[in-house]
Amino acid sequence: MADRTQPQSGWYGHGKQVLRWFLAHSGIDEGQAQAIVENAAGGRFGSWITPDVLVADTVNSRFAGGAGRTR
C-alpha cells in the first residue's frame, strides 16, 4: 500500500478506509469495522515515511485477529 502511494502525507488514512470497506463488504457493521481498524492501525503509522516491516507485520496480525473474531 505505501509503495503505491509513494509514502506521502496521509497515505495511512486511505489504507484504513480501504480496510473498513473490506470489512463492510464482508458483512461487518460499520462501528465494529471502525473499531477493528483503529485497534490494528491507529497511531502506528506516520506521515511521509514508509512503515518498517515490523510495524506493518504487527498491524497485519492485529487486523487479521480482529477480523477473525467477528466470524
Distinct helical segment count: 4
Radius of gyration (CA) equals 12 Å
Termini Cα gap: 26 Å
| Elements, N to C (H/E) | HHHH
Structural class: mainly alpha
- Spans of at least 5 consecutive residues whose pLDDT stays below 50 are none
Main sheet makeup: none
What's the helical proportion of residues?
55-70%
Mean pLDDT: 83
What assembly state would you assign to the polypeptide chains in this entry?
A: single chain
- Counting DSSP E segments of at least 2 residues, the number of strands comes to 0
Broad shape:
globular
Strand content: under 5%
Describe what this molecule looks like in 3D.
The protein is mostly helical. It contains four helices and no strands. Helix 2 packs across helix 3 (30-41) and helix 3 packs antiparallel against helix 4. It is globular, with a radius of gyration of 12 Å. The mean pLDDT is 83.
Quick summary:
This protein is mostly helical.
Describe this protein with a few key phrases:
single chain; 71 residues; mainly alpha; 0% strand
Which helices and strands appear, and what pairs or packs with what?
Layout: H1 2-5, H2 11-25, H3 30-41, H4 53-68
Helix pairs in contact: 2-3, 3-4
